[in-house]
Amino acid sequence: MQCIKSTVRQCTRNISAIQNRTVYVKQTLTVSLRLYSEKVKVDELTVDYHQVKNATLNGNVLIVDVREPEEVKEHGKIPNSINIPLGNVSTALGIMTDKEFQSLYKRPKPTEEGEIIFYCMIGKRSGMAQQNAINLGYKNVKNYLGSWTDWASKLH
């Protein structure tokens, strides 16, 4: 506080000397951040082929393909999955109403506790979709790391 008072007094004395001049004021803000990390097992955030295969039989798990529609048409999709391209995930899970989601995707919009599995071609975009969902408050979201490449390799 003493430092601020002395600065104010000094500024008051010099005000008459700078009345008709442009004065540039530089402010410096020092912020101290503490980053906390929580150890999370990779198993809690990812799924493998067998878990996804079981999920295709479970109507309570929403399996979301985040590839572009052209990729889905060209390569195929995991049974019972829906296609929400990565660029639309935040809108679909965040802004869309339950009714709009149901109308567009023919599946109920998941609750924040509902299980969602994301996949793409190799697991990268699905990881981004997973992070988007977590940022929106979804708590039970998983990434199929092998994604379509792994799934398709098991079909032959």
UniProtKB/TrEMBL annotation:
InterPro entries attached to this UniProt entry: Rhodanese-like_dom, Rhodanese-like_dom_sf
CDD domains xrefs: RHOD_HSP67B2 (cd01519)
Domain of life: Eukaryota
Positions of the Rhodanese domain: 57-156
Protein name listed in UniProt: Jg16271 protein
